[in-house]
Specification:
heterodimer, A: alpha+beta, Amidase signature (AS) enzymes, about 40% helix, about 15% strand, B: mainly alpha, two-stranded antiparallel sheet, 2 strands, about 35% helix
């Protein structure tokens, strides 16, 4: 097995001609098919990917996976939706073009919750993605197939997108690294929009350094995406030294203290105890970690703020999906009947619900109470995090309320009792903060993760701290051991 | 009693040209109740009405990459048409729109 190695290791072997690009690609396709049978991780597997040759670039000749919502020239790009089940773009997303320039090799398009609008990996047009550690558990979403494939060792990295936690939560559930850089660091041109003010591109890997290498190759200002900014002075890979003198982190009492939760499950207790143990480990290795408090009332609004804003933006963004200029044509007498038929049959129940919520909160009579107030609370929450970043290099928190949930637990429904522990990663999207999840242990033989979120544009510092913490534990480069 | 009704949900779905089953309609109603309750909490935050809405993750950002006004080559027409199911020559074929009652 080769594709379990890190990007640096693979590159060295390619340069020394100990292995060939064909070896890597053939193994990757073989593993893709194996994983498709067991976990349903892919929207599309490419049989004969292009080999651009090996260069000095660390990514050259190495296979990778692409989430189904990235436009890839002449390769099916469905967004895991039946509304685009046969859509083949005639251009590459900017991020893909950059990886093509690096001679990286796409071997598959990974399954995802339809258009990124789910958190379970159960609403892909190709069916449910199963967790490679335990097939009765979910991967989380929406970058479900990407997380599943990287955890299985199909390749060292796969691309994801993250509007709420869609890279960072599946990374935790699958025992790998998920990194969402500062908003606008990677161009979103050619990536299907979900909620534009929150959407980020990013990557899933098995170690922090690989995440730095990939994002270095994806980032950059793009005239086709006005939210991008000039990051040419940032080299994430070279910034990783493991030197953490005078670094300070904080965690939030109202999220991490078990006393905040009524009748906690055994998994939640274990998860939070494991997190506290890791905090002590980090403290004993030279990083200061403080406990801080944030108004619980504010924290409890996070989930609803996210739902209101993301649904509103999605409703608008996806109004072009009509079956007229692309996608399967609907049936009916007139154009409106045809569009309604296309949208009713093509969208899954989950996103239809979200569209209706979005439409409701955008109605003139409802905008102030729902949409504008959600935007106002977004600012209050982001201001609180900005205050923390004046004192701390990052906020460190546990991801989710434990390991991957059982597949019959439908957490795509916003229900009473939803805790801040499940939703706090959305704050990283509210503020556009760089945010990375790394594995931090096992509960009931299933991986769990912690997250570090830092101030905007300070990606190098966040990754360096994550790299140091990763080095203190034994979960780097782990491959799923299926039960 | 909820202020949301099945008819309201169907009306909003219809505006989006989406049809909902009864089960889907019920799920929207349930979610509306949860969201509405949480929005009530938001409305109790002191001075909320004086906060400037945050519309964007980097809403203070100075845009530094507006394109110069230079003509560029448009995509090839055949490429653009490649995903359309019905076309006539260089145009996408659509049903008659003018005269539609719900236009």
């Amino acid at each position: 097995m080769l594709n379990h190695l890190s990007i640096e290791e693979l590159h060295q072997k390619l340069i020394k001609k100990e292995i060939t690009v064909e070896d890597l690609v053939n193994e990757s396709i073989k593993l893709s098919k194996e994983l498709q049978d067991s976990c349903n991780a892919f929207d599309f597997i490419i049989e004969n990917p292009k080999n651009y040759g090996v260069t000095d670039n660390l990514l050259s000749g190495i296979p990778y996976g692409v989430k189904a919502n990235y436009s890839t020239k002449n390769i099916l790009s469905s967004g895991s939706s039946n509304t685009l089940k046969d859509y083949v773009p005639f251009f590459d997303a900017t991020a893909i073009k950059k990886l093509n320039d690096a001679h990286a090799i796409i071997v598959n398009k990974t399954a995802m919750d339809e258009f990124g609008m789910g958190g379970t990996g159960t609403t892909c047009r190709t069916g449910t993605v199963k967790n490679p550690w335990d097939n009765t558990r979910m991967t989380a979403g929406s970058s479900a197939g990407s997380a599943c494939a990287v955890a299985y060792g199909v390749y060292p990295y796969a691309l994801g997108t993250d509007t709420g936690d869609s890279i960072r939560k599946p990374a935790a559930y699958c025992g790998i690294v998920g990194y969402k850089p500062t908003y606008g660091m990677i161009s979103r041109y050619g990536v299907f929009p979900f909620a534009s003010s929150l959407d980020h591109c990013g990557v899933l890997t098995r170690n922090v350094k690989d995440a730095a290498i990939v994002v270095d190759n994806m980032k950059g200002i793009d005239e086709n995406d006005m939210t991008t900014w000039n990051s040419s002075n940032i080299n994430l890979y070279k910034s990783i030294t493991g030197e953490v003198n005078n670094k300070k982190l904080c965690y939030i009492k109202e999220i991490c203290d078990i006393s905040n939760y009524d009748n906690p499950s055994d998994e939640l207790v274990s998860h939070l105890n494991n997190f506290k143990e890791k905090i002590e480990l980090i403290r004993s290795n030279g990083i200061e970690v403080d406990e801080v408090s944030i108004d619980k009332k504010l924290l409890n609004t996070v989930a609803s703020v996210y739902v209101v804003l993301s649904c509103a933006e999605a409703t608008s963004n996806m109004s072009n999906l009509t079956g007229i200029i692309f996608g399967p044509k609907g049936e009916g007498e007139g154009v409106f009947d045809q569009i309604k038929d296309h949208r009713t049959k093509g969208f899954s129940p989950l996103i239809k619900r979200r569209f209706v919520i979005g439409s409701y909160v955008l109605q003139r009579e409802n905008q102030e109470r729902y949409f504008k107030n959600a935007q106002r609370v977004r600012r209050l929450i982001v201001d609180e995090w900005d205050k923390l970043f004046k004192k701390y290099d990052g906020v460190i928190l546990p991801v989710g309320s434990g390991p991957a949930k059982k597949l019959d637990d439908d957490s795509n429904t916003l229900a009473n009792g939803t805790t801040i522990l499940e939703e706090h990663l959305q704050i990283g999207n509210f503020g556009g903060f760089p945010s990375i999840t790394i594995p931090d242990g096992f509960i009931n033989n299933l991986p769990v993760g912690l997250n570090i979120t830092g101030k905007r544009y300070d990606d190098a510092n966040v990754l360096n701290i994550a790299y140091k913490i990763e080095s203190l534990m034994d979960y780097k480069n782990q491959i799923a051991e299926r039960k | 009693m909820s202020k949301f009704t099945k008819e309201m949900v169907d009306s909003y779905a219809d505006k989006l040209l989406i049809g909902l089953t009864d089960e889907e309609n019920k799920m929207v109603l349930d979610e509306f109740d949860v969201i509405d309750k949480d929005i009530d909490i938001i409305n109790t935050i002191d001075g909320i009405e004086n906060i400037k809405p945050m519309t964007h993750a980097l809403d203070y950002q100075v845009i530094e990459n507006l394109r110069d006004d230079i003509p560029s080559i448009s995509p090839n027409i055949d490429d653009l048409l490649s995903n359309a199911k019905s076309k006539i020559g260089r145009e996408i074929e659509v049903p008659k729109v003018v005269g539609e009652t719900n236009a």
